[in-house]
Amino acid sequence: MMEATVNKNRVMVKINQNLSIWTAYALMMVLFIVGSVMIPGFSHPSSLLSMLVLASFTGIAAIGQNLVILLGGIDMSIPYIITMGDILIPYLNQFHIPFVIALLLVIIIAGIVGGLNGFLSASLKIHPLVITLGTGYLVDGAMYVLTKGVPSGSAPQFLVSMAALNSHAFGFHFPPVILVWLVFAVFTIWALRNTKWGRQIYAVGANPQAAEFTLVSRLTVWMYSYVASAVLAAVTGVLLSGFSGSGFFDIGNPYLFISVGAVAIGGTSLLGGVGNYLGTIAGVLTLTEISTILIGFNVGSSRQEIFYGLIVLTMISIYGRDLHVRNRL
Predict the structure, then answer these.
(1) 94 with 152: CB under 8 angstroms?
(2) Which pTM was predicted?
(3) Are 241 and 155 in contact (CB under 8 A)?
(4) What are the sequence ranges of the domains in the chain?
(5) Residues paired with 87 in a beta bridge
(6) What is the pLDDT of residues 140-150, one digit of tens each?
């Protein structure tokens, strides 16, 4: 009897998850129609390419946020690590340090920060919001000390070309940064479904205590996931340095609410254990469309932040009523 009830609840969770994904894509299509009707040039190929480029940065950052939210956590350090990647690459490039070495340095720093986030959050059992915000401020402070508050240098030319709208990939008029996002997206969807690590993320997010009984190390899963989140944030920052041409403080700030909002819109439970990146892709594209529409109506960035905050609060209230009971069965 108990087994039948558990199986029934699992089926219901799967149905609800698929419904959330379809709803997210339906919302994306509705917004595309609205934008095409109300904003001149919204559906023009150059405009669509521009939106896909912007969505690529959000999409890569949202992968990491998706992973830690599936655990029942959150990564508040993402915007600061993005800024670090955006500042360090041009800074090191001015000293003619090879890009590969500069990239490895950025990834190593991000990995250390991510590992610290996961270790402290899991071992001390302090809410990751506090831990990741603290490490984020440390990273931000270090960048201010390094640059004395004035970022310098310029991004390597090939990075600039990767995000340029007139660039090509494999002979097609297709900015390579979009292809980078596509590769990360396909791998993430596959890994969450087919790897031991992916299954462990769902297990720990759904029921940490039960996962421990099946010999799944909560600490290890949290550390790996937060390392992945930090590294992906750093990669986002590196790619953004090519888009902006040089380093800028606060360039990562918008990606906190956007990454959380995309994950929430895509149907991932903010309480953990349920969701996948396929839905998050729809969330990323939806928020990119919303941003483009708001810009078309001359809505400033500060008001856009308010809008994203309202989205996150709305999704939290929806999941809060659920009590996460069926996700833990």
Answers:
(1) yes
(2) 0.90
(3) yes
(4) 22-32+42-328
(5) none
(6) 999 999 999 89
